[in-house]
Amino acid sequence: MTPRPMTPRPSRRSPFAPCTPYPPDVAARYRAAGHWRDDTLGDLLSETARRHPGATALVGPSARSRHTRVRLTYQALVDRVERAAAVLASQGLAPGDRVVVQLPNVAELAVVVMALFRLGALPVFALPAHRESELVAFCRITDAAAHVVAGQGWGHDYLATAARVADTLRAEHRDPPVVIDVERCDLEAADPVPLRRSTPHGARASEAVAFLQLSGGTTGVPKLIPRTHADYLYSVRESVQICGVDATTVMLVALPATHNFPMSSPGMLGVWMAGGTVVLAGDPSPRTAFGLIAAEGVTTAPLVPPLVQAWLTRAERDRAALHSLRTLLVGGARLPDSVARRVGPELGAQLQQVFGMAEGLVCYTRLGDPADLVETTQGRPISEADEILVVDDLGTPVAEGDEGELLTRGPYTIRGYYGTDDRSSFTSDGWYRTGDRVRVLPSGHLRVTGRSKDQINRGGEKIAVAEVEDALLRHRAVHDAALVAVPDAYLGERTVAFVVGEPLANDLTAGSLTAHLRTIGLAGFKIPDRIEIVDRFPTTGVGKTSRAELRRALARGYTERSQ
Ligand code: OOB
């Protein structure tokens, strides 16, 4: 007997807030050019399963037994996704609901995310490193219906954090999200009931928002990025072509899998589109990665620059493990030219640099590019339809080849953040201000030369300066705080916080401030690498804190009173 299609219940949550749309003529152009199509992320796996039912889609640890390596064919993965969608629907999740997904790289992550797409619910992609401070903000902005976590066995007590998030929201008279723990909840408990397709946002289901990604941010509050099925699938399809992903690709995902880079550039979704295999690493260590590469015949992996350096060190004694590796995708932060030059000879893989952002634009060096461009540039945009503008401080376009701030628009770059009226990252004619300083070469390749936004890039992890300073200022004995970046050979940048105490606050120490930041639940990577307590800040001519002077003071090794 074929089960009757199930109609999910309507949501109890507030409706999805409207997002800044693409102008109708621009949207029509993207449709006419074939960039935007009618399929959705919920169809992706079943379409590949029709072509390659018995191929291996996913290998990875399981949340419920971390030493078992789960191995699923496309058919088996589709079956698990259908069951999980039914289980999630039975827990009350409905189309249009927002669901904070905070999972390590376990098989259940893939199942839950794809099940939410099937259901028409919207994942909010948190990172395992996020704590109460970020999670509460995501729940407030999205009115999240559920928070999916991996219990207590993955290096942190995620359940306890989820409970604290719920307490904070309850204290604010908000309805906290249902906590779904994939260590305990059996995602296969329900029959794979076909779900009736829902089109919550009108007829063009593919142009509805599919999920919310996180922005590295520059303000005190994290920002959420609304990406549509059509725009995201376009970027994934093109990335698959540019990176030569096909059914023989075996991709190792050692970075947090919900980040935009391993998710879509070309990422897990690209591999699943092409019928290849995704191998999830439960931890990012080179030891685990090298073991999986050798065991699974891994052909490619997305990496941030510090991991490339760690792989180079390990390869000095374990190069044989890498025999199957063909390409290495490196992005998230600037890869030093000197490290780029070592990838081919020492890892035996072709380097592809990736300069991307969760807001949209992704650039790649191409597989056929001359070595010099691959080693010294961050690639060129995916699409002819990506518009690039480089401007000076007044917003005027610079002369060709000159350095300036990068603005961009295109078929997969957002026009506004979710749930905020703050439009400061966008120009009135829809350009996204990336905050990155670049130079465009005659070939169209971009060289990232620096940054004009108040964000620190700690080995690919983005830290909004204002968010950390605000968190420090919440300490009763802190009068003022300034966070600056210092260059670091391994991470690119590390953070140093300068803090001025309130008068008579003699008990202020670096240790008490770190403890304060942990108590308020700031993600670990945002906790300053060093805290310096000083009597006063150097100021600029107009009396503003001079970050440049603080950086110079650090370089001199001088602080007025350091602890
Ligand atoms: C990726 O995305 P996000 O949203 O975490 O961070 C975006 C920012 C960029 O605006 C830029 O400041 C920096 O990260 N960045 C790079 C870079 N790739 C990203 N800076 C210098 N060189 C590079 N190659 O980080 C991201 C998203 C998709 C693909 C790859 C990376």
TrEMBL record:
Domain (AMP-dependent synthetase/ligase) ranges: 46-418
Pfam families in the cross-refs: AMP-binding, AMP-binding_C
Keywords linked to the UniProt accession: Ligase
Signal sequence range: none
Family matches, as PROSITE patterns: AMP_BINDING (PS00455)
SUPFAM superfamilies given in the database record: Acetyl-CoA synthetase-like
Domain AMP-binding enzyme C-terminal: 467-544
Molecular-function GO terms, alphabetical: ligase activity, forming carbon-sulfur bonds
Coiled coil: none
Protein name: 2,3-dihydroxybenzoate-AMP ligase
